[in-house]
């Protein structure tokens, strides 16, 4: 089969300030999910020797890096933001070609990456501790914070720019060195971020990237005795394994995992707003966000009106190659993901839910080489069905009908996960019940479940995370340790 080779460059590991060839000599192609014959670039299948070299370089570099003033570390992040902004179009295009989200979404995410870098650059000048009155009037007692050392960063493919940056930027500003293992699916995009960081002039060894299999390089980071902290976003199974490996050797860990995010539509809701937000929150990025809406819980008296408006809106969704203008929804990011979505659609039908929109893989001419699926809606979904309980990570909405807000809240909370949840209502009482009773790390009123603000804490309850929070000032809790200082002259 002829390959449309759009780029035949191999993206190397970045170790101790050098672009390095792996000891394995093996590479694999990163392909476009919109056209599996299009190769975006080649990435290395690295070995534990490569990882060990990266960790050793990071360990050495961190000793000097932590001694710099926070403002000096911040200057590197400001420079990186400027470089990323200059290369925004190129980075965003690589992201779209490599994982499929539409170009406007990819551009928005890349701009968000630059904003995150600037936010954490500013952290270099903010307070880190408290003065605490001692019981000894002649003593000074205060807290300060110290970096962990070398931080391992394991990232998924669904936010190829924002997630690596929202993990690396706080790690760096607080004085850690990093070794990142990006998702294989989006390693070319990650290499471009690392190029931006390199251009910003970070000292050699402070930032390292090693590509390769999760089971080798990701697990190797989790097990490595010189890696003091591991931050991970991805699936629950892998996250739990990483957490256990880190716990076993006393390392700090932070896990962001799945969601089964509900939206409640109350009788008094602005239905147009609720429909708009359900479509955007559930189907943007082809439903591949941990914050994506997947359960739509609607009060019975407005159920039919909501459903009609929703189906009407879905008819206007254009599916296709995210590089093309006018496309609203791209493909699934890879073939496995497409298969997972198809399997859940089949399960939904088998378990007795009614398919009322979409449900088919798109394979007509123009789609045949990509991993495209229609936006899909089920109704008559009951709480025990797989499509109501498990994370699908695809453009599938499950409609559930309830009689009251109390019933809606009970159903919304009947999930293993607790990441994000929304309610659409104009009733202040419903809003307050939702804020108080909804078990989720993010609760949003009259706004979609997806989309987080970089300056606010982000993380989930229950199985969605390791109960830690990322982003905003909350990041300092993971990337530093508190030291309590008692000074007696
Ligand atoms: N919470 C979220 O935002 C995300 C959730 N998911 C969920 O996970 C499902 C599967 O997606 P998938 O890409 O397979 O997610 P994974 O959890 O497998 O991948 C996430 C990251 O972990 C790495 N990894 C894989 N195996 C190991 C391991 N044994 N030890 C350490 N690191 C490892 C991956 O590397 P490599 O790419 O090389 O395999 C990748 O960098 C999705 O359907 C979705 O439900 C997926 C992505 C993001
Ligand atoms: O909704 C967002 O912007 C962030 C989602 C996210 O962190 C994820 O899907 O991993």
UniProtKB/TrEMBL annotation:
Active-site positions on this chain: 256
Gene3D superfamilies assigned to the protein according to its UniProt record, in alphabetical order: Aldehyde Dehydrogenase, Chain A, domain 1, Aldehyde Dehydrogenase, Chain A, domain 2
CDD domains xrefs: ALDH_KGSADH-YcbD
GO MF annotation list: oxidoreductase activity, acting on the aldehyde or oxo group of donors, NAD or NADP as acceptor
Keyword Oxidoreductase listed: yes
Swiss-Prot/TrEMBL keywords: Oxidoreductase
The keyword Oxidoreductase is annotated on this UniProt entry: yes
UniProt xrefs under SUPFAM superfamilies: ALDH-like
PROSITE patterns per record: ALDEHYDE_DEHYDR_CYS, ALDEHYDE_DEHYDR_GLU
The Aldehyde dehydrogenase domain, residue ranges: 24-485
Entry-linked NCBIfam families: AlphKGSA_gudD
Family: Belongs to the aldehyde dehydrogenase family.
Protein name: Aldehyde dehydrogenase family protein
Organism the protein comes from: Paenibacillus thalictri
């Amino acid at each position: 089969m002829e390959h449309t080779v759009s780029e035949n460059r191999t993206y190397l590991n970045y170790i101790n300030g050098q672009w390095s060839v792996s000891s394995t000599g093996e590479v694999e192609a990163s392909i476009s999910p919109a056209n599996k014959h299009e190769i975006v670039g080649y990435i290395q299948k690295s070995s534990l020797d490569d990882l060990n070299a990266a960790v050793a370089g990071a360990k050495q570099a961190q000793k000097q890096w932590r001694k710099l003033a926070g403002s000096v570390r911040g200057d590197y992040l400001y420079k990186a933001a400027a470089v990323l902004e200059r290369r925004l179009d190129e980075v965003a295009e690589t992201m779209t070609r490599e994982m499929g989200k539409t170009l406007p979404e990819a551009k928005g995410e890349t701009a968000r990456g630059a904003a995150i870098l600037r936010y954490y650059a500013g952290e270099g000048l903010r307070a880190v501790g408290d003065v605490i009155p001692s019981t000894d009037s002649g003593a000074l007692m205060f807290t300060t914070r110290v970096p962990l050392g070398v931080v391992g960063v394991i990232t998924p493919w669904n936010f190829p720019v924002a997630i690596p940056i929202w993990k690396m930027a706080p790690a760096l500003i607080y004085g850690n060195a990093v070794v990142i293992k990006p998702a294989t699916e989006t390693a070319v995009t990650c290499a471009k971020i690392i190029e931006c960081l390199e251009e910003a002039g970070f000292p050699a060894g402070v930032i390292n990237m090693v590509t390769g299999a999760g089971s080798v390089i990701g697990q190797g980071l989790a097990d490595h005795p010189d890696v003091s902290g591991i931050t991970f976003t991805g699936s629950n199974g892998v996250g739990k394994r990483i957490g256990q490996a880190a716990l076993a050797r006393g390392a700090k860990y932070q896990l962001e995992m799945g969601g089964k995010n509900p939206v409640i539509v109350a009788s008094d809701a602005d239905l147009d707003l609720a429909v708009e937000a359900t479509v955007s929150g559930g189907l943007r990025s082809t439903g591949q966000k941990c914050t994506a809406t997947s359960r739509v819980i609607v009060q019975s008296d407005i159920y039919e009106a909501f459903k009609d408006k929703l189906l009407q809106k879905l008819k206007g969704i254009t599916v296709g190659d995210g590089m093309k203008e006018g496309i609203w929804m791209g493909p699934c990011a890879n073939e496995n993901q497409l298969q997972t979505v198809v399997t859940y659609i089949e399960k939904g039908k088998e378990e007795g839910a009614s398919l009322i929109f979409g449900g088919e893989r798109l394979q007509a001419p123009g789609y045949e080489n990509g991993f495209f699926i229609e936006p899909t809606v089920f109704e008559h979904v009951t709480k025990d069905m797989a499509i109501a309980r498990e994370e699908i990570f695809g453009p599938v909405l499950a409609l559930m009908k309830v009689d009251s807000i109390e019933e809606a809240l009970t159903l919304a909370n009947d999930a293993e996960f607790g990441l994000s949840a929304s309610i659409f209502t104009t009733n202040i009482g419903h809003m307050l019940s939702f804020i108080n009773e909804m078990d989720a790390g993010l609760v949003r009123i009259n706004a979609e479940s997806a989309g987080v603000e970089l300056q606010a804490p982000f993380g989930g309850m229950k199985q969605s995370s390791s109960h830690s929070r990322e982003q905003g000032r909350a990041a300092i809790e993971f990337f530093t340790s508190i030291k309590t200082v008692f000074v007696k002259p």
